[in-house]
Structures are given as structure tokens and as C-alpha cells.
Amino acid sequence: MNEFGGAFPLKAKPLRSITESLITKYRSKSSAQDDDHEKDEPKNSPVDEEQGTLAFAVGLAKSALASVAGKFGFSSYSYEHFTKQEMIDNLLLQKKTAISYSKWMEVCNDLDELQDFNKWKQEAESNLYDFSIVKKNMMELRSARLDGDIRKLLYLIRTTWTRNIGNIGNVNLYRHSHTGTKKLIEEYLHECELALQEVTKENNNHGLDDRYILGMLVQTRKNIGRTALVLSGGGCYGLFHIGVLAALLEEDVLPRIISGSSAGAIVASILSVHNTDEIQELMETIVEQKFDIFEEQKNIQTFLICLSRFLKYGTWYDNKNLQDTMIDFLGDLTFREAYNRTGRILNITVSPASVHEHPRLLNYLTAPSVLIWSAVCASCSLPGVFPSSTIYEKNLKTGVTQEWHHASVKFVDGSVDNDLPITRLSEMFNVDHIIACQVNPHVVPFLKLSVTCVGGEIETEYSAKFKTKLGQIYGLWSAEVIHYLQMSAEVGIARNLCTKLVSVLSQKYSGDITILPDLHEVSQLNKLLANPTPEYLLQCTMKGARATWPKISIIKNHCGIEFALDGAIKLLRSR
């Protein structure tokens, strides 16, 4: 345990498993409801049903394998000879159905041992990174620390620490085992932690003032840069983001800078207006929350109302339900008030309805008095689904709600022009590292086939090369489509539509680390624009968490130095 919070990366205090608590509460509630209705058997949660289905499939495969072996005369020893494979199959099943990160990690460690992947981890040499420079820097840090040479330690910290030293940030280092990467990389990062512990010790007879050390660490942090979490749009698929946040929060690797577009703006804003304890409680009761964003299509009358609105105004829904839901969650907090309350930097992207305006990134610097709920509604105003929206602000003198000073501009869905505002975040907050969660149904299939989005799952060299070729083909195809759309806009053919389509196709939809749902999740189009049920909320949360767990070791290694520096700086400033 270090002096400024805990293990590397920094942990303020242990957090109970959100996903495990969520499943337990859901099962208890379902069981109580079944008892009230005097049912013989309790209702299973979606997770229980998933576990049962997978267990049945694995059992069926084992039976078939044993049957085939028996036909070829191997019945006397078939079971014994398949014991190891059965153990692997059983562990893989447990990995897919784990309900907490600790259990998932335990299973992954067992799999790495059973499948002999630990041997690859122990071997320092690899053409994926410069192991010699990593080892050299680690030994220099260790030597200076053991000698108590604080001046040299500070010199090494200031001059050698970067996020991607020796290419240790290469995501391909994380596709050769179920969890973790080369032991040399983990040892180097641990040595960095020990170096920070040494230079921040109180009453250390090194003759250096705390202010001098603080200045050195602040400059180092600027050099390393900052990490931002960026949540994409994607309709009700955006509930997947809840599980991502739960997983990051549990392991205390949730960046302070958070951006959201459309559905991502909903989840990002709810997170950013609550402190950690409140978020823990909110997420554990997430299935009880109401996300009634869309009008219910209960009968032919409501359908005809929506159809009439679409024919008259070009939108299927009005945004009253959306506004009411966001006000219930967010109240009348402004961007500045939310930042002062939680310290998190919330960013929401909005796209002007006009082609003559540029997309905007709203936060406590660019729109301090803007009401967050109105920014979220504007970011969710997908053309054809919701009408364009006006943004409101709180008058600083009177506290009265009024239209923002840009009221003449109407805003639509932030995903249209700037789903992941990477460039703007870099300019404003020195962000050079992006954790992206992408759930847009028109994007996920292509990213699943992208070699840039690997990491956290085992993948062969042939698979990586195949994805590279597919990526090149997609790049050529999209370039041609963009060219024709630009030509159409220039000659006046559906100029507004073509311009918006160019924005959609030419954006970057992935980050340095990209978290993606399964293709099956984004293929359920009937749930894209529908109010979620408690069961669907639970499924999305669990699947979001499970998609994030393989990325946790990558995030810790990419961001560990950054988060530890934040903790060390906070400690020195508190003295």
C-alpha cells in the first residue's frame, strides 16, 4: 500500500463489486416477487439463463466428443484423456458467465496456467516492444531508489517517463494471454510506483523542498498527457456504457475527463453529477431506474399520432419524455456546478442543424452556465427521431432559466458530426490517450474487423493479418463513397444530407483502447429506439462490464503512471 492511496494505479478505497451486487439484488427481488405470486420456482435472471444455456452447450459438446471417441475404440480412456480439455472448456464457460471482475481474473489466471500462456509472459524478448530500453530504465530507477538518490530519481522521472516508452502501449501485447502481458512491463510499472513512493516520503533527508518535487511531478504529468473516456451514441444500445463505467469504477481506473454523444451523453452526464459513493449506490439499483425516453406505442392511436408528427414536422417522437427523464436524473445542475461538486470534467458534443455551423463541445469551460439536461437533450436529437433542440442556461445573477446566448442555433444529435471529439479534447485538456466505448450499430461491425481494436482477447497472427486486409478494403470503399457525396454536395444535390453523411463516414470511431459490444447486441434493431425493460438494463450492464474486463489490464498499464502521478501530486499539495 503506497502513501497516496494504494496499489498502482491509485485506489482511494476498496469498492464492492457493482455487478455482483446488482445480480444479487435482482435475484432477491425476483425471488420475492415469485413468492408473492406463490410460484413453485423462482424467476431466473437473464444472467442465470445465459449461464444455463452455455452450460448445456458445453455439456452437449462433451457428450458428442466422448461418443465419437467410443466409436473409434477409445472408450476405456477417453474421459481421462479429455480431462485437460474439459477443464479448459469449463473455465472458458466460467469466464463468459462471471459476474465479478475478481472471479473473472481468477479464471483467466487459471486458464493462462493451464494453457501455458504464462511462458510467453515470462519471456521478456519480443518484437512487439523494445524490451531492452524498458529493462534499462527499470534497472536505473531501481538502482537510484535503493541508493536513496532522490535527485537522480527525480531526474529519471522527469526525463524518461512517457506513456508509451519502448512501445509498451502496443495493444498487440495483450492478445497472447487471457489477462496481462509481459512480466517485464508489469515489473517496470511497479518500479515506477516505488519510485514515486520514495520521492514523496515525509521527513526524507534528501534536502529537497516539497514544492520543488511537486513542480517536477507536475511537469512530468504534463509531458505524459491525460486520459479521457469517450462514450459514443447508439440509441438504447448506449445502456451498454453503464456496465463499462461500473467495471472502470470498481478498479478505480475511471478517468476524470468524460465525454458523451447522444446516448453516451445520457450515461456520461448521470455519472458526472454524482460522487463515487452516490454512483456506487445508483448503479447497484440501475434496474429500478426509469429510462422512459420514447413515447410508448401502445395502440394504433399513438402510432397515428407519431405518423402525423413525422409527416408534418419530420420527427417521429417529441422530446418531452426525454426532457422529463433527464431533469429527473440531473436536476438543474450546470456544467460548472457539476464540476465543482464531483471534480469530473463532463463534455457533451452537439451538432448544429445547419451545415454552416461547426460542432461544439460543451463543458465547464465553454458553457459553464448551461443546464446539463438541455445539453443532453440537444445531443440526443437524432434527425427524424427527435426534433432539433434549444439549449438553456441558468442566469448567474437571478438563477432563472433562459435560452442560451446561442439560441438562434438549433442543435441535433452529437454523433452526426463529432461522435468522439478526440481533437477538441486534446486541444482543451491535453488529452493524448482515449478510452472509447463504441456502440453505434453502423460502426461496430467494421471495428470488430479492425486490427486497431484488438487487445484483451487471444487472437492469432492470421486473424490479425486478415483484419488488416479488411481494414484496407474498407478504407478504399469509404474514400470512394465520401468522394461521391462531396461531389453531390458541391453541385447542390441534397447538400445538407450529403454533408452530414460525409461527417458520419469520415469520423474516427475508435480510441487507443476501444471497448465494443458483441455483434449480436447491436443487431437487435427492435431495441434501438425502445424504452428498456429491467431485464434489458441488467443484460446491458453485465455485457458492458464483461466487455471491459479484458481491457482492464491494458488500461492499468497505459494509465498507471498518469493516475499514480495524480495521487502523488494530490498528496504533496495536501501537506
TrEMBL record:
Disordered, as annotated region: 26-48
Sequence motif GXGXXG, location on chain: 233-238
Domain PNPLA: residue ranges: 229-426
InterPro entries: Acyl_Trfase/lysoPLipase, NTE, PNPLA_dom, Triacylglycerol_lipase_N
Domain of life: Eukaryota
Keywords, comma-separated and alphabetical: Hydrolase, Lipid degradation, Lipid metabolism
Catalytic center residues: S262 (nucleophile), D413 (proton acceptor)
GO molecular function list: triacylglycerol lipase activity
GO biological process per UniProt: lipid catabolic process; triglyceride mobilization
Sequence motif GXSXG, location on chain: 260-264
Basic and acidic residues compositional bias, start-end: 32-43
Pfam families in UniProt: DUF3336, Patatin
PANTHER family (UniProt xref): NEUROPATHY TARGET ESTERASE/SWISS CHEESE D.MELANOGASTER (PTHR14226), TRIACYLGLYCEROL LIPASE 4-RELATED (PTHR14226:SF10)
UniProt-recorded name of the protein: PNPLA domain-containing protein
Source organism per UniProt: Wickerhamomyces anomalus (strain ATCC 58044 / CBS 1984 / NCYC 433 / NRRL Y-366-8)
